[in-house]
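Crash report, auto-generated. Payload:
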Amino acid sequence: MTPQPLGTLKGFAVTFRQMFKKPLTQQYPEYKRPLYPRFRGRHRLHRHENGLEKCVGCSLCAAACPSDCIRVVAAENTADDRVSAGERYARIYEINLSRCIFCGYCELACPFDAITLGNEFELSEYSRDDLIYTKDMLLDEPIKRVPIQDPALFDTPLPAYRTKS
Amino acid sequence: MIAPFVAATSEPWWISLIKAAIIINLVLVTFAYLTLTERKVMGRMQLRYGPNRAGPFGLLQPIADLVKLVRKESFFPAAAIDVLYIFAPFIAAFAALTTFSVIPWGPGWTIDGYYVTGYVADVPIALLLIFAIGSLGIYGFIVGGWSSDSKYALLGSMRTCAQLVSYEVSLALSVLGVVLMARSLSLVDIVDHQYHDLWYVPYIVPQLVGFLVFMFAGTAETARAPFDLPEAEQELVAGYHTEYGGMRFGLFTMAEYVNLITLSALAVTLFLGGWHIPGPWLQQYGPIWFLLKLGLLLFVFIWMRATLPRLRYDQLMRFGWKVLLPVATANAVITAILVVAL
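Recovered output after restart:
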Protein backbone atom coordinates (compact mmCIF):
# COMPACT_ATOMS: atom_id res chain seq x y z
CA MET A 1 0.00 0.00 0.00
CA THR A 2 1.36 3.38 -0.97
CA PRO A 3 0.67 6.42 1.20
CA GLN A 4 -1.74 8.92 -0.35
CA PRO A 5 -1.01 12.36 1.08
CA LEU A 6 -3.51 14.06 -1.23
CA GLY A 7 -6.33 11.83 -0.05
CA THR A 8 -5.45 12.67 3.54
CA LEU A 9 -5.59 16.38 2.80
CA LYS A 10 -8.99 15.91 1.17
CA GLY A 11 -10.17 14.33 4.41
CA PHE A 12 -9.02 17.42 6.31
CA ALA A 13 -11.00 19.62 3.92
CA VAL A 14 -14.14 17.53 4.50
CA THR A 15 -13.99 17.79 8.29
CA PHE A 16 -13.28 21.53 8.06
CA ARG A 17 -16.30 22.11 5.83
CA GLN A 18 -18.53 20.10 8.16
CA MET A 19 -17.86 22.63 10.93
CA PHE A 20 -19.91 25.31 9.19
CA LYS A 21 -22.95 23.14 8.53
CA LYS A 22 -25.90 23.11 10.89
CA PRO A 23 -25.71 20.10 13.20
CA LEU A 24 -28.35 17.42 12.74
CA THR A 25 -28.78 16.94 16.49
CA GLN A 26 -32.35 17.13 17.75
CA GLN A 27 -32.23 18.85 21.16
CA TYR A 28 -34.27 16.21 22.96
CA PRO A 29 -36.15 17.59 25.94
CA GLU A 30 -37.06 20.75 24.05
CA TYR A 31 -37.65 19.18 20.69
CA LYS A 32 -39.47 15.88 20.63
CA ARG A 33 -39.40 13.93 17.45
CA PRO A 34 -42.85 12.78 16.30
CA LEU A 35 -43.45 9.12 17.07
CA TYR A 36 -44.53 6.53 14.57
CA PRO A 37 -48.25 5.59 14.82
CA ARG A 38 -47.50 2.03 15.88
CA PHE A 39 -44.88 3.00 18.49
CA ARG A 40 -45.31 0.87 21.61
CA GLY A 41 -44.95 2.87 24.81
CA ARG A 42 -46.54 2.78 28.25
CA HIS A 43 -49.77 0.74 28.57
CA ARG A 44 -53.15 2.29 29.06
CA LEU A 45 -56.41 0.75 30.25
CA HIS A 46 -59.61 1.97 28.64
CA ARG A 47 -63.22 2.57 29.67
CA HIS A 48 -66.45 2.27 27.77
CA GLU A 49 -68.24 5.50 26.92
CA ASN A 50 -70.61 4.99 29.84
CA GLY A 51 -67.65 4.95 32.25
CA LEU A 52 -67.44 1.19 32.84
CA GLU A 53 -64.05 -0.42 32.52
CA LYS A 54 -63.44 -2.53 29.46
CA CYS A 55 -61.26 -4.99 31.37
CA VAL A 56 -63.18 -8.03 32.62
CA GLY A 57 -60.31 -9.55 34.57
CA CYS A 58 -59.84 -12.59 32.33
CA SER A 59 -56.02 -12.62 32.78
CA LEU A 60 -55.37 -13.48 29.14
CA CYS A 61 -52.88 -10.59 28.99
CA ALA A 62 -51.02 -12.01 31.97
CA ALA A 63 -50.97 -15.41 30.28
CA ALA A 64 -49.64 -13.95 27.04
CA CYS A 65 -46.97 -11.86 28.73
CA PRO A 66 -43.52 -13.35 27.99
CA SER A 67 -41.83 -11.55 30.87
CA ASP A 68 -44.64 -12.25 33.32
CA CYS A 69 -45.01 -8.67 34.45
CA ILE A 70 -48.81 -8.36 34.58
CA ARG A 71 -50.73 -9.33 37.69
CA VAL A 72 -54.53 -9.53 37.55
CA VAL A 73 -56.80 -10.44 40.45
CA ALA A 74 -60.45 -10.61 39.40
CA ALA A 75 -63.61 -10.08 41.46
CA GLU A 76 -67.33 -10.48 40.71
CA ASN A 77 -69.39 -7.47 39.71
CA THR A 78 -72.40 -6.97 41.91
CA ALA A 79 -75.54 -4.98 41.37
CA ASP A 80 -74.44 -2.18 43.77
CA ASP A 81 -70.83 -2.21 42.67
CA ARG A 82 -70.62 -2.50 38.91
CA VAL A 83 -67.12 -1.72 37.69
CA SER A 84 -66.85 -3.38 34.31
CA ALA A 85 -69.20 -4.33 31.55
CA GLY A 86 -68.68 -8.06 31.93
CA GLU A 87 -69.44 -10.57 34.66
CA ARG A 88 -66.20 -9.93 36.52
CA TYR A 89 -63.73 -7.06 36.79
CA ALA A 90 -60.05 -6.63 37.65
CA ARG A 91 -59.84 -5.85 41.36
CA ILE A 92 -56.07 -5.57 41.08
CA TYR A 93 -54.35 -4.82 37.80
CA GLU A 94 -50.62 -4.18 38.03
CA ILE A 95 -47.89 -3.95 35.41
CA ASN A 96 -44.30 -4.05 36.51
CA LEU A 97 -42.76 -1.75 33.90
CA SER A 98 -39.22 -2.55 34.96
CA ARG A 99 -39.81 -6.06 33.60
CA CYS A 100 -42.02 -5.19 30.64
CA ILE A 101 -40.36 -5.57 27.24
CA PHE A 102 -43.04 -3.58 25.37
CA CYS A 103 -43.76 -6.46 22.97
CA GLY A 104 -47.50 -5.71 22.74
CA TYR A 105 -48.67 -9.31 23.24
CA CYS A 106 -51.05 -8.19 26.01
CA GLU A 107 -52.71 -5.89 23.50
CA LEU A 108 -53.11 -8.76 21.04
CA ALA A 109 -54.40 -11.16 23.68
CA CYS A 110 -57.07 -8.85 25.05
CA PRO A 111 -60.56 -9.86 23.75
CA PHE A 112 -62.12 -6.47 24.65
CA ASP A 113 -59.38 -4.02 23.56
CA ALA A 114 -59.14 -3.00 27.19
CA ILE A 115 -55.37 -2.62 27.20
CA THR A 116 -53.34 -0.86 24.53
CA LEU A 117 -49.80 0.39 24.35
CA GLY A 118 -49.68 4.18 24.28
CA ASN A 119 -47.04 6.65 23.13
CA GLU A 120 -45.39 7.58 26.43
CA PHE A 121 -41.76 6.56 26.69
CA GLU A 122 -40.44 8.90 29.42
CA LEU A 123 -40.72 6.39 32.24
CA SER A 124 -37.70 7.11 34.46
CA GLU A 125 -38.15 6.83 38.20
CA TYR A 126 -35.87 7.15 41.19
CA SER A 127 -37.18 3.95 42.73
CA ARG A 128 -38.02 0.54 41.28
CA ASP A 129 -41.23 0.44 43.28
CA ASP A 130 -42.47 3.47 41.39
CA LEU A 131 -42.29 1.48 38.16
CA ILE A 132 -45.08 -0.85 39.26
CA TYR A 133 -48.13 0.81 37.68
CA THR A 134 -51.45 0.16 39.35
CA LYS A 135 -54.89 0.13 37.75
CA ASP A 136 -55.61 3.76 38.69
CA MET A 137 -52.41 4.94 37.06
CA LEU A 138 -53.06 2.93 33.92
CA LEU A 139 -56.63 4.23 33.63
CA ASP A 140 -55.61 7.88 34.11
CA GLU A 141 -54.14 10.19 31.53
CA PRO A 142 -50.34 9.87 31.64
CA ILE A 143 -48.40 12.56 33.49
CA LYS A 144 -46.52 15.00 31.29
CA ARG A 145 -43.05 14.82 32.77
CA VAL A 146 -41.01 17.21 30.68
CA PRO A 147 -42.56 20.54 29.77
CA ILE A 148 -42.80 20.88 26.05
CA GLN A 149 -41.30 24.12 24.80
CA ASP A 150 -41.76 25.83 21.51
CA PRO A 151 -40.16 23.49 18.96
CA ALA A 152 -39.46 26.41 16.62
CA LEU A 153 -36.84 27.62 19.09
CA PHE A 154 -34.91 24.41 18.82
CA ASP A 155 -35.74 23.49 15.27
CA THR A 156 -33.34 21.21 13.50
CA PRO A 157 -33.47 20.29 9.84
CA LEU A 158 -35.14 17.04 8.94
CA PRO A 159 -32.61 14.40 7.92
CA ALA A 160 -32.24 13.77 4.21
CA TYR A 161 -34.04 10.45 4.27
CA ARG A 162 -37.15 12.19 5.52
CA THR A 163 -37.19 15.04 3.01
CA LYS A 164 -36.22 13.21 -0.15
CA SER A 165 -38.53 10.25 -0.34
CA MET B 1 24.30 40.79 20.89
CA ILE B 2 21.81 41.35 23.66
CA ALA B 3 18.29 41.94 22.50
CA PRO B 4 16.31 44.86 23.88
CA PHE B 5 13.51 42.52 24.88
CA VAL B 6 15.61 40.07 26.84
CA ALA B 7 17.58 41.96 29.41
CA ALA B 8 19.88 39.88 31.56
CA THR B 9 18.43 40.68 34.94
CA SER B 10 17.99 38.77 38.12
CA GLU B 11 14.55 39.27 39.56
CA PRO B 12 13.73 38.61 43.21
CA TRP B 13 12.83 35.00 43.98
CA TRP B 14 9.31 35.82 45.09
CA ILE B 15 8.44 37.26 41.69
CA SER B 16 9.35 33.93 40.12
CA LEU B 17 7.20 32.19 42.69
CA ILE B 18 4.17 34.34 41.91
CA LYS B 19 4.74 33.92 38.20
CA ALA B 20 5.03 30.15 38.56
CA ALA B 21 1.74 30.01 40.46
CA ILE B 22 0.01 32.13 37.82
CA ILE B 23 1.42 30.10 34.94
CA ILE B 24 0.45 26.76 36.49
CA ASN B 25 -3.10 27.99 36.98
CA LEU B 26 -3.27 29.40 33.47
CA VAL B 27 -2.04 26.10 32.04
CA LEU B 28 -4.67 24.24 34.06
CA VAL B 29 -7.43 26.57 32.87
CA THR B 30 -6.19 26.11 29.31
CA PHE B 31 -6.32 22.35 29.86
CA ALA B 32 -9.87 22.50 31.21
CA TYR B 33 -11.15 24.55 28.34
CA LEU B 34 -9.10 22.62 25.81
CA THR B 35 -11.14 19.54 26.69
CA LEU B 36 -14.35 21.54 26.16
CA THR B 37 -13.08 23.06 22.89
CA GLU B 38 -12.03 19.65 21.68
CA ARG B 39 -15.44 18.16 22.37
CA LYS B 40 -17.25 21.11 20.81
CA VAL B 41 -15.05 21.36 17.70
CA MET B 42 -15.12 17.61 17.14
CA GLY B 43 -18.88 17.69 17.65
CA ARG B 44 -19.32 20.34 14.98
CA MET B 45 -17.07 18.39 12.62
CA GLN B 46 -19.36 15.39 13.11
CA LEU B 47 -22.55 17.48 12.76
CA ARG B 48 -23.25 17.38 16.49
CA TYR B 49 -23.37 20.24 19.00
CA GLY B 50 -21.06 18.81 21.64
CA PRO B 51 -21.70 19.55 25.32
CA ASN B 52 -24.18 22.44 25.57
CA ARG B 53 -26.15 21.79 28.75
CA ALA B 54 -23.91 22.85 31.66
CA GLY B 55 -24.11 26.62 31.74
CA PRO B 56 -24.44 28.89 28.71
CA PHE B 57 -23.09 27.08 25.62
CA GLY B 58 -21.82 24.33 27.94
CA LEU B 59 -19.14 26.64 29.34
CA LEU B 60 -19.36 25.09 32.81
CA GLN B 61 -18.82 21.56 31.49
CA PRO B 62 -15.12 21.31 32.56
CA ILE B 63 -16.06 22.39 36.09
CA ALA B 64 -18.87 19.83 36.19
CA ASP B 65 -16.42 17.17 35.00
CA LEU B 66 -13.91 18.16 37.67
CA VAL B 67 -16.48 18.07 40.47
CA LYS B 68 -17.64 14.67 39.28
CA LEU B 69 -14.10 13.27 39.15
CA VAL B 70 -13.15 14.65 42.56
CA ARG B 71 -16.26 13.28 44.24
CA LYS B 72 -15.83 9.78 42.85
CA GLU B 73 -14.65 6.97 45.07
CA SER B 74 -10.91 6.32 44.79
CA PHE B 75 -11.20 2.61 44.23
CA PHE B 76 -8.24 0.34 44.18
CA PRO B 77 -7.68 -3.04 42.49
CA ALA B 78 -6.97 -5.66 45.13
CA ALA B 79 -3.87 -6.95 43.34
CA ALA B 80 -2.36 -3.54 42.60
CA ILE B 81 1.00 -2.53 44.03
CA ASP B 82 -0.28 0.27 46.21
CA VAL B 83 2.58 2.77 46.47
CA LEU B 84 3.30 2.74 42.75
CA TYR B 85 -0.38 2.69 41.85
CA ILE B 86 -0.99 5.84 43.88
CA PHE B 87 2.15 7.71 42.87
CA ALA B 88 2.09 7.04 39.11
CA PRO B 89 -0.51 9.75 38.32
CA PHE B 90 1.41 12.25 40.45
CA ILE B 91 4.62 11.56 38.54
CA ALA B 92 2.86 12.02 35.22
CA ALA B 93 1.09 15.23 36.26
CA PHE B 94 4.18 16.70 37.95
CA ALA B 95 6.38 16.11 34.91
CA ALA B 96 3.74 17.57 32.61
CA LEU B 97 3.31 20.75 34.65
CA THR B 98 7.02 21.32 35.25
CA THR B 99 8.05 21.52 31.62
CA PHE B 100 5.99 24.60 30.86
CA SER B 101 8.17 26.73 33.14
CA VAL B 102 10.97 27.22 30.61
CA ILE B 103 8.76 28.41 27.76
CA PRO B 104 8.99 32.17 27.16
CA TRP B 105 5.71 33.90 26.46
CA GLY B 106 6.41 37.64 26.55
CA PRO B 107 8.95 40.44 26.37
CA GLY B 108 9.13 41.24 30.08
CA TRP B 109 7.75 44.31 31.79
CA THR B 110 8.71 46.76 34.50
CA ILE B 111 5.98 46.66 37.12
CA ASP B 112 6.24 48.95 40.13
CA GLY B 113 10.01 49.26 39.83
CA TYR B 114 10.60 45.52 39.50
CA TYR B 115 11.58 44.03 36.16
CA VAL B 116 9.42 40.97 35.44
CA THR B 117 10.68 38.65 32.74
CA GLY B 118 8.37 36.92 30.28
CA TYR B 119 9.25 33.40 31.42
CA VAL B 120 9.40 31.51 34.68
CA ALA B 121 12.96 30.23 34.25
CA ASP B 122 15.59 30.82 31.60
CA VAL B 123 17.60 27.63 31.79
CA PRO B 124 20.64 27.50 29.45
CA ILE B 125 19.71 23.92 28.54
CA ALA B 126 15.95 24.44 28.48
CA LEU B 127 15.34 22.17 25.50
CA LEU B 128 17.25 19.29 27.10
CA LEU B 129 15.33 19.92 30.32
CA ILE B 130 12.00 19.60 28.54
CA PHE B 131 12.97 16.31 26.93
CA ALA B 132 14.48 15.00 30.15
CA ILE B 133 11.42 15.79 32.27
CA GLY B 134 9.16 14.55 29.48
CA SER B 135 10.96 11.22 29.64
CA LEU B 136 10.48 11.15 33.41
CA GLY B 137 6.76 11.63 32.80
CA ILE B 138 6.72 8.43 30.75
CA TYR B 139 7.57 6.57 33.98
CA GLY B 140 4.21 7.64 35.34
CA PHE B 141 2.43 5.97 32.42
CA ILE B 142 4.55 2.81 32.48
CA VAL B 143 4.51 2.37 36.25
CA GLY B 144 0.79 3.12 36.43
CA GLY B 145 -0.02 0.47 33.84
CA TRP B 146 2.26 -2.10 35.35
CA SER B 147 1.28 -1.66 38.98
CA SER B 148 -2.47 -1.99 38.32
CA ASP B 149 -1.93 -5.71 37.68
CA SER B 150 -4.31 -5.88 34.74
CA LYS B 151 -3.70 -7.30 31.28
CA TYR B 152 -5.20 -4.34 29.46
CA ALA B 153 -3.27 -1.82 31.50
CA LEU B 154 -0.04 -3.75 31.05
CA LEU B 155 -0.51 -4.03 27.27
CA GLY B 156 -1.41 -0.35 27.16
CA SER B 157 1.66 0.71 29.07
CA MET B 158 3.87 -1.55 26.91
CA ARG B 159 2.51 0.18 23.83
CA THR B 160 2.96 3.59 25.43
CA CYS B 161 6.52 2.68 26.30
CA ALA B 162 7.43 1.38 22.83
CA GLN B 163 5.77 4.26 21.01
CA LEU B 164 7.11 7.02 23.20
CA VAL B 165 10.64 5.66 23.21
CA SER B 166 10.79 5.26 19.43
CA TYR B 167 9.24 8.60 18.59
CA GLU B 168 11.26 10.54 21.16
CA VAL B 169 14.35 9.90 19.02
CA SER B 170 12.79 11.57 15.99
CA LEU B 171 11.39 14.36 18.14
CA ALA B 172 14.79 15.20 19.61
CA LEU B 173 16.49 14.99 16.19
CA SER B 174 13.89 17.23 14.55
CA VAL B 175 14.68 20.16 16.85
CA LEU B 176 18.42 19.73 16.26
CA GLY B 177 18.19 21.90 13.14
CA VAL B 178 16.73 24.76 15.16
CA VAL B 179 19.37 24.35 17.85
CA LEU B 180 22.12 24.44 15.22
CA MET B 181 20.70 27.57 13.61
CA ALA B 182 20.23 29.41 16.91
CA ARG B 183 23.46 27.96 18.41
CA SER B 184 21.71 27.74 21.75
CA LEU B 185 19.59 25.34 23.78
CA SER B 186 17.89 28.12 25.70
CA LEU B 187 14.36 28.76 24.47
CA VAL B 188 14.65 32.47 25.29
CA ASP B 189 17.72 32.68 23.02
CA ILE B 190 16.01 30.68 20.28
CA VAL B 191 13.01 33.02 20.22
CA ASP B 192 15.36 35.99 20.22
CA HIS B 193 17.43 34.61 17.31
CA GLN B 194 14.31 33.94 15.26
CA TYR B 195 13.36 37.57 15.63
CA HIS B 196 16.74 39.12 14.91
CA ASP B 197 18.40 36.82 12.35
CA LEU B 198 16.94 36.54 8.86
CA TRP B 199 14.66 39.62 8.90
CA TYR B 200 11.99 38.41 11.36
CA VAL B 201 11.50 35.11 9.46
CA PRO B 202 10.55 32.36 11.96
CA TYR B 203 12.35 29.03 11.78
CA ILE B 204 9.38 27.27 10.16
CA VAL B 205 10.59 28.60 6.79
CA PRO B 206 14.17 27.26 6.79
CA GLN B 207 13.22 24.30 9.00
CA LEU B 208 9.94 23.24 7.38
CA VAL B 209 11.01 19.59 7.31
CA GLY B 210 12.01 19.78 10.95
CA PHE B 211 8.63 21.32 11.81
CA LEU B 212 6.71 18.57 10.02
CA VAL B 213 8.76 15.85 11.69
CA PHE B 214 8.28 17.60 15.03
CA MET B 215 4.50 17.69 14.55
CA PHE B 216 4.27 14.02 13.52
CA ALA B 217 6.55 12.83 16.31
CA GLY B 218 4.82 15.16 18.75
CA THR B 219 1.42 13.70 17.88
CA ALA B 220 2.81 10.24 18.57
CA GLU B 221 4.54 11.48 21.71
CA THR B 222 1.31 12.81 23.20
CA ALA B 223 -0.58 9.69 22.02
CA ARG B 224 -3.10 11.69 20.02
CA ALA B 225 -5.06 10.37 17.04
CA PRO B 226 -3.98 9.00 14.57
CA PHE B 227 -1.18 7.69 16.81
CA ASP B 228 -3.38 6.95 19.83
CA LEU B 229 -2.53 3.25 19.98
CA PRO B 230 -1.65 3.30 23.69
CA GLU B 231 -5.31 3.87 24.46
CA ALA B 232 -6.96 2.15 21.52
CA GLU B 233 -10.42 1.71 22.99
CA GLN B 234 -11.44 -1.15 20.74
CA GLU B 235 -8.58 -3.40 21.75
CA LEU B 236 -7.33 -2.14 25.09
CA VAL B 237 -10.36 -0.62 26.87
CA ALA B 238 -8.42 2.50 27.88
CA GLY B 239 -4.73 1.62 27.84
CA TYR B 240 -2.50 2.12 30.85
CA HIS B 241 -5.18 3.89 32.92
CA THR B 242 -7.80 1.15 32.56
CA GLU B 243 -7.80 0.46 36.31
CA TYR B 244 -7.84 4.10 37.35
CA GLY B 245 -10.86 6.13 38.31
CA GLY B 246 -11.83 9.39 39.92
CA MET B 247 -9.24 12.11 40.25
CA ARG B 248 -6.33 9.68 39.71
CA PHE B 249 -7.69 9.09 36.24
CA GLY B 250 -8.23 12.85 36.05
CA LEU B 251 -4.55 13.44 36.79
CA PHE B 252 -3.51 11.12 33.96
CA THR B 253 -5.85 12.90 31.55
CA MET B 254 -4.53 16.21 32.80
CA ALA B 255 -0.95 15.05 32.21
CA GLU B 256 -1.82 14.06 28.64
CA TYR B 257 -3.51 17.34 27.81
CA VAL B 258 -0.86 19.46 29.53
CA ASN B 259 1.77 17.54 27.57
CA LEU B 260 -0.12 18.42 24.42
CA ILE B 261 -0.22 22.10 25.42
CA THR B 262 3.48 22.09 26.28
CA LEU B 263 4.34 20.40 23.02
CA SER B 264 2.32 22.95 21.03
CA ALA B 265 3.95 25.76 23.02
CA LEU B 266 7.34 24.24 22.23
CA ALA B 267 6.47 24.10 18.54
CA VAL B 268 5.40 27.75 18.70
CA THR B 269 8.63 28.67 20.45
CA LEU B 270 10.97 26.70 18.21
CA PHE B 271 9.37 27.09 14.79
CA LEU B 272 6.74 29.83 14.78
CA GLY B 273 8.74 32.63 16.39
CA GLY B 274 7.45 32.33 19.95
CA TRP B 275 5.76 35.46 21.21
CA HIS B 276 7.07 37.60 18.34
CA ILE B 277 5.21 38.46 15.19
CA PRO B 278 7.17 39.22 12.02
CA GLY B 279 7.89 42.92 11.76
CA PRO B 280 9.06 45.59 14.19
CA TRP B 281 5.62 46.56 15.51
CA LEU B 282 3.34 45.52 18.36
CA GLN B 283 5.90 43.28 20.05
CA GLN B 284 4.76 44.40 23.51
CA TYR B 285 1.60 42.29 23.07
CA GLY B 286 3.76 39.13 23.14
CA PRO B 287 1.46 36.91 25.25
CA ILE B 288 -1.44 37.55 22.84
CA TRP B 289 0.53 36.44 19.79
CA PHE B 290 1.80 33.47 21.76
CA LEU B 291 -1.74 32.43 22.71
CA LEU B 292 -3.01 32.88 19.15
CA LYS B 293 -0.28 30.65 17.74
CA LEU B 294 -0.82 28.13 20.53
CA GLY B 295 -4.54 28.05 19.83
CA LEU B 296 -3.91 27.51 16.13
CA LEU B 297 -1.66 24.51 16.77
CA LEU B 298 -4.07 23.04 19.32
CA PHE B 299 -6.86 23.39 16.75
CA VAL B 300 -4.74 21.47 14.25
CA PHE B 301 -4.35 18.65 16.80
CA ILE B 302 -8.13 18.53 17.38
CA TRP B 303 -8.78 18.70 13.65
CA MET B 304 -6.39 15.82 13.08
CA ARG B 305 -8.17 13.74 15.72
CA ALA B 306 -11.53 14.33 14.03
CA THR B 307 -10.15 13.43 10.59
CA LEU B 308 -7.64 10.62 10.63
CA PRO B 309 -8.28 7.00 11.59
CA ARG B 310 -5.85 5.19 13.86
CA LEU B 311 -2.77 3.54 12.35
CA ARG B 312 -2.01 -0.14 12.72
CA TYR B 313 0.80 -0.96 15.11
CA ASP B 314 3.28 -2.11 12.45
CA GLN B 315 2.49 0.98 10.37
CA LEU B 316 3.22 3.13 13.41
CA MET B 317 6.58 1.49 14.05
CA ARG B 318 7.54 1.51 10.38
CA PHE B 319 6.64 5.18 10.03
CA GLY B 320 8.63 6.08 13.13
CA TRP B 321 11.83 4.19 12.38
CA LYS B 322 11.89 4.05 8.58
CA VAL B 323 10.47 7.44 7.61
CA LEU B 324 10.67 9.97 10.43
CA LEU B 325 14.05 9.01 11.85
CA PRO B 326 15.98 9.12 8.50
CA VAL B 327 14.24 12.35 7.50
CA ALA B 328 15.01 13.97 10.86
CA THR B 329 18.64 12.80 10.68
CA ALA B 330 19.08 14.05 7.12
CA ASN B 331 17.52 17.38 8.12
CA ALA B 332 19.93 17.76 11.03
CA VAL B 333 22.98 16.81 8.92
CA ILE B 334 22.06 19.16 6.04
CA THR B 335 21.36 22.01 8.47
CA ALA B 336 24.70 21.40 10.16
CA ILE B 337 26.55 21.49 6.81
CA LEU B 338 24.74 24.67 5.74
CA VAL B 339 25.32 26.40 9.10
CA VAL B 340 29.04 25.63 8.92
CA ALA B 341 29.33 26.52 5.22
CA LEU B 342 27.47 29.83 5.32
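Post-recovery validation: The longest strand of chain A covers residues 88-96.
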